[in-house]
């Protein structure tokens, strides 16, 4: 007769006739139930024969670990649009198994990051014109696995976004500040190019009087007048040259604030864009490397020191002046200077404008009319003088 006389008898039984030991529990290497909790089970077995002789033997049973966690990861393709905000989710790497860690081991680790749930996010700006495809090597690790880790190639395709458009005959692009996540025109309103330096004259753009439409007064060579208009939409292109309001209408500025807040393209900014508030300008200014011309130009807005216009004409300086579309606590219109921040100024001053994309809006490219030419017939008489049309 066989019997279990001592040891981890809770985990096993023995056939009294044959001596076959069987388990009466489901063993889990990670959760042992032996007395020593080390997956080593000790049994004392007693045997009694037909003559009633007794003998005992010690039996050791060891439970070995079996990998229950199979990690899998395969090559995958993800897509994301260019110009998205930093921190945007690209996608989640598809895997199976109990994974404890994800890691990008090769590829552009300065542009993408991955967390321990497998979510890939952007940590830098994406520009389709610079890079269309990124290839990352992603390693996964897990506990209780046959393989310590596995690696697969993850391809990220950047989708092109058409951020080029024309407005009032000028070609613009959009730029996004990675710190504020706000999108702006890439140049001052009316400028022929993005600034190549802080004093790049071609990047200065127009000098607008507050709330006034683009009627030609903003051109730097427009003529002056000492006569105020009685409307907020003058029918002339003259720049009112005194340091006061340029119109006798709209004394509380409400109509002009509304006009410059328009995002339907009827104002001075393209569709989806408007003149920024002082708070929005100050948020951009706070993201610069310094509150000076060098910091403004080094930002991705590349703001130039575009001077100002008031009584006496255009006054060039080592600073830039930009309209803000709001009033200060005294009820005055405001402008931001690159070096000093927000100040109240007369509405008749001429300052630069940098349009901001309204939150929740999408810029709509303004169509450019195609050039056309048709077959034509003209006549001219013989012996006509040189230069005759």
Report the strand count: 26
Distance between the termini: 130 Å
β content, as a range?
Answer: 25-35%
Helical percentage: under 10%
Oligomer: single chain
Question: Strand arrangement, largest sheet?
Answer: 7-14-13-10
Summarize the biggest pleated sheet.
4 strands, mixed
Low-confidence stretches: 365-372
Please tally the helical runs, counting DSSP H or I stretches of 4 or more residues: 3
Structural class determined from secondary elements = mainly beta
Radius of gyration: 38 Å
Output mean pLDDT: 88
Order of helices and strands: EEEEEEEEEEEEEEEEEEEHEHHEEEEEE
Shape: elongated
Task: Tell me what you see in this structure.
The chain has 389 residues and is mainly beta. Helices cover 6% and strands 32% of the residues. The chain has helices spanning 254-261, 278-286, 293-298; strands at 2-7, 12-14, 21-23, 40-48, 54-62, 72-73, 76-81, 89-92, 95-96, 99-106, 112-114, 119-122, 133-142, 149-159, 164-167, 170-176, 183-185, 224-225, 239-240, 273-274, 308-310, 313-315, 321-327, 333-337, 341-344, 356-357. The strands form 10 sheets. The protein has a 4-stranded mixed β-sheet with strand order 7-14-13-10, with no helix packed on it. A 3-stranded antiparallel β-sheet has the order 1-4-5, with no helix packed on it. Strand 13 (133-142) and strand 14 (149-159) form a beta hairpin. The longest helix is centred in the C-terminal third of the chain and has 9 residues, at 278-286. The chain starts with a strand and ends in a 32-residue tail after the last strand. Residues 365-372 have low confidence and may be disordered.
């Amino acid at each position: 007769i066989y019997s279990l006389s001592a040891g981890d008898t809770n985990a096993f039984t023995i056939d009294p006739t044959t001596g076959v030991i069987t388990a009466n529990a489901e063993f889990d290497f990670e959760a042992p139930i032996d007395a020593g909790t080390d997956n080593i089970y000790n049994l004392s077995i007693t045997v009694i024969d037909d003559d009633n002789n007794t003998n005992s033997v010690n039996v050791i049973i060891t439970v070995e670990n079996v990998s229950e966690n199979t990690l899998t990861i395969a090559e995958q393709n993800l897509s994301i649009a260019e110009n998205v905000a930093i921190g945007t989710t690209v996608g989640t790497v598809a895997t199976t198994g109990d994974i404890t860690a994800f890691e990008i081991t090769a590829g552009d680790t300065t542009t993408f990051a991955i967390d321990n749930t497998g979510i890939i996010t952007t940590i830098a700006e994406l520009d389709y014109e610079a890079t269309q495809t990124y290839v990352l090597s992603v390693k996964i690790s897990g506990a209780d696995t046959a393989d310590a880790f596995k690696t697969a190639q993850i391809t990220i395709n950047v989708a092109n976004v058409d951020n080029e458009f024309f407005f009032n005959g000028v070609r613009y692009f959009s730029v996004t500040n990675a710190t504020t996540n706000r999108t702006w025109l890439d140049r001052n309103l009316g400028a022929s190019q993005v600034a190549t330096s802080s004093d790049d004259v071609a990047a200065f753009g127009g000098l607008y009087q507050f709330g006034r439409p683009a009627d030609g007064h903003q051109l730097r060579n427009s003529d002056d007048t000492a006569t105020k208009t009685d409307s907020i939409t003058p029918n002339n292109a003259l720049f009112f040259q005194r340091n006061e309001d340029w119109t006798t209408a709209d004394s509380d500025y409400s109509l002009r604030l509304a006009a410059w807040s328009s995002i339907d393209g009827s104002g001075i900014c393209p569709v989806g864009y408007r003149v920024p508030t002082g708070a929005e300008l100050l948020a951009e200014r706070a993201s610069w490397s310094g509150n000076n011309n060098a910091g403004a130009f080094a930002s991705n807005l590349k703001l130039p020191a575009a001077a100002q216009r008031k009584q006496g004409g255009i006054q060039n300086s080592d600073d830039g002046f930009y309209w803000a579309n709001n009033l200060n606590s005294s009820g005055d219109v405001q402008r931001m200077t690159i070096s000093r921040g927000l100040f109240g100024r007369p509405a008749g001053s001429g300052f630069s404008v940098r349009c901001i994309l309204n939150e929740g809006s999408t810029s709509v490219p303004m169509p450019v009319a195609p050039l056309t030419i048709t077959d034509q017939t003209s006549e001219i008489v013989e012996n006509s003088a040189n230069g005759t049309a």
